[in-house]
């Protein structure tokens, strides 16, 4: 899906690059709504695109939303 999008030239220059960079997530957002759940093997991933919910998740003062453990190279920093 990504190779199909990258083969086409950008007709208009804009800041709306999400459909071009991650076309699969863009398609799922249009199909399933602004927040949806996907599975990668046995792990569920929740995609949240509503600004108010993103603020709540990122503030996370009560540790309601656990953060994913970093692996490999990123863990060293």
TrEMBL record:
<dbReference type="GO" id="GO:0016705">
    <property type="term" value="F:oxidoreductase activity, acting on paired donors, with incorporation or reduction of molecular oxygen"/>
</dbReference>
<dbReference type="GO" id="GO:0004497">
    <property type="term" value="F:monooxygenase activity"/>
</dbReference>
<protein>
    <recommendedName>
        <fullName>Cytochrome P450</fullName>
    </recommendedName>
</protein>
<dbReference type="GO" id="GO:0020037">
    <property type="term" value="F:heme binding"/>
</dbReference>
<dbReference type="GO" id="GO:0005506">
    <property type="term" value="F:iron ion binding"/>
</dbReference>
<dbReference type="InterPro" id="IPR036396">
    <property type="entry name" value="Cyt_P450_sf"/>
</dbReference>
């Amino acid at each position: 899906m990504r190779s199909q999008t990258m083969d086409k030239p950008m007709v208009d220059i804009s800041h709306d690059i999400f459909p071009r960079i991650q076309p699969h997530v863009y398609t799922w957002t249009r199909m399933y709504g602004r927040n949806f759940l996907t599975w990668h093997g046995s792990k569920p991933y929740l995609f949240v695109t509503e600004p108010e919910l993103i603020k709540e998740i990122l503030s996370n003062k009560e540790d309601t939303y656990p953060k994913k453990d970093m692996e490999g190279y990123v863990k060293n920093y």
